[in-house]
C-alpha cells in the first residue's frame, strides 16, 4: 500500500488559493490519489480523486505530477469554512481500504 | 448534510450496558464501513461489509459486533465496552468494494460515544 506524506499544518489568507501538497512516491500505476477533508465535529468529506490527469470539480482542483509521485490539492479561493484537516490517501488496490495519515491542518485566516 | 445518516449522534453508556449504533444510506451502495476516531487522531478502519457480507475485520475486539441486515443498513452492537472505547464512530458507504478503487467513500457525521 502506498504511503503518503503531508505537512502537518498550513495557513492561508481568506480569498487566496490554498495549495496543499502530498507526496506518494511509492504509488503504483493503477492506484488513485484521493483527497478528503474533515471539518471539526463532522465526518470526512470526499473532495476529489485522480489517477494520472489533472482533475477539477466544484470544490477543488487536483494536480498530479507526471511521474505521479506527488500531487497538489488547490482550493482556488479559500474561505473560513475551508478550515479543516485535509487527508491525501492512496486506497489499497487489493482491499480498497482507506488508511488515513495525520493529514494537513489548514487554517484559513481573515 | 450527508447522505449517510448515523444515529444516535451522541451516546453515553456504562460498561455493563448493551447498545447499538445505526447507519443508513439510500444511495444504492453495496459496501459499508465502520471507522473509529479517537480525539485528535485520524479515523481507523474497523469493519467492511460488501454485499451484506463481512469482508474485512481489522482485528476488532469481540465487544464490538457489526451487523448488516440489508444493503441500506449497518449496525454496530456494543457490549461491555471499556472507557478507552470512547471515540467518534463513523460509518461510510461506497458503490462497492471494487478493485478499481474509482469510487469514493461517503461518510456520515458519526456517533460520539462516551463510556462511563
Describe the structure.
The complex is a heterodimer of chains A (110) and B (116). Chain A is an all-beta fold and 110 residues long. Helices cover 0% and strands 43% of the residues of chain A. Chain A contains no helices and nine strands. Chain A has a five-stranded mixed beta sheet, with no helix packed on it. A four-stranded antiparallel beta sheet of chain A has the order 2-7-6-5, with no helix packed on it. In chain B, strands 2, 4, 5, 6, 9, 10 and 11 form a seven-stranded mixed beta sheet that branches. Chain B has a four-stranded antiparallel beta sheet with strand order 1-3-8-7, with no helix packed on it. Chain B has 116 residues and is mainly β. The model of chain B has no long low-confidence stretch (mean pLDDT 92). Classes of the chains: A mainly beta (110), B mainly beta (116). At the A-B interface, strand 4 of A face strand 5, strand 9 and strand 10 of B.
Mind sketching the topology for me?
The complex is a heterodimer of chains A (110) and B (116).
Chain A: E1 9-13, E2 18-23, E3 33-38, E4 45-50, E5 55-56, E6 61-64, E7 70-75, E8 84-89, E9 104-109
Parallel strand pairs in A: 1-9
Antiparallel strand pairs in A: 2-7, 3-4, 3-8, 5-6, 6-7, 8-9
Chain B: E1 4-7, E2 10-13, E3 18-25, E4 31-37, E5 44-50, E6 53-57, E7 64-70, E8 73-79, E9 87-94, E10 106-107, E11 111-115
Parallel strand pairs in B: 2-11
Antiparallel strand pairs in B: 1-3, 3-8, 4-5, 4-9, 5-6, 7-8, 9-10, 9-11
Short descriptors:
heterodimer; A: 110 residues; mainly beta; four-stranded antiparallel β-sheet; globular; B: 116 residues
Summarize this structure briefly:
The complex is a heterodimer of chains A (110) and B (116). With 110 residues, chain A is mainly β. Helix content of chain A is 0%, strand content 43%.
Amino acid at each position: 500500500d502506498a504511503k503518503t506524506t503531508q505537512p502537518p499544518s498550513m495557513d492561508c489568507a481568506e480569498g487566496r488559493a490554498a495549495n496543499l501538497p502530498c507526496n506518494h512516491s511509492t504509488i503504483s500505476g493503477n492506484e488513485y490519489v484521493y483527497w478528503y477533508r474533515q471539518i471539526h465535529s463532522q465526518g470526512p468529506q470526499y473532495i476529489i480523486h485522480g489517477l494520472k490527469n489533472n482533475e477539477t470539480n466544484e470544490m477543488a482542483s487536483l494536480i498530479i505530477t507526471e511521474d505521479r509521485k506527488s500531487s497538489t490539492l488547490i482550493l482556488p479561493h479559500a474561505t473560513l469554512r475551508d478550515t479543516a484537516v485535509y487527508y491525501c490517501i492512496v486506497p489499497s488496490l487489493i482491499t480498497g481500504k482507506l488508511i488515513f495519515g495525520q493529514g494537513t491542518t489548514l487554517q484559513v485566516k481573515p | 448534510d450527508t447522505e449517510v445518516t448515523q444515529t444516535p449522534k451522541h451516546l453515553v453508556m456504562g460498561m455493563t450496558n448493551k447498545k447499538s449504533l445505526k447507519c443508513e444510506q439510500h444511495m444504492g451502495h453495496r459496501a459499508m464501513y465502520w471507522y473509529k476516531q479517537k480525539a485528535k487522531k485520524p479515523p481507523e478502519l474497523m469493519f467492511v461489509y460488501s454485499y451484506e457480507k463481512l469482508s474485512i475485520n481489522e482485528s476488532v475486539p469481540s465487544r464490538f459486533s457489526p451487523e448488516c441486515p440489508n444493503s441500506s443498513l449497518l449496525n454496530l452492537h456494543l457490549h461491555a465496552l471499556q472507557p478507552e472505547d470512547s471515540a467518534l464512530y463513523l460509518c461510510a458507504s461506497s458503490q462497492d468494494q471494487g478493485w478499481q478503487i474509482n469510487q469514493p467513500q461517503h461518510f456520515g457525521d458519526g456517533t460520539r460515544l462516551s463510556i462511563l
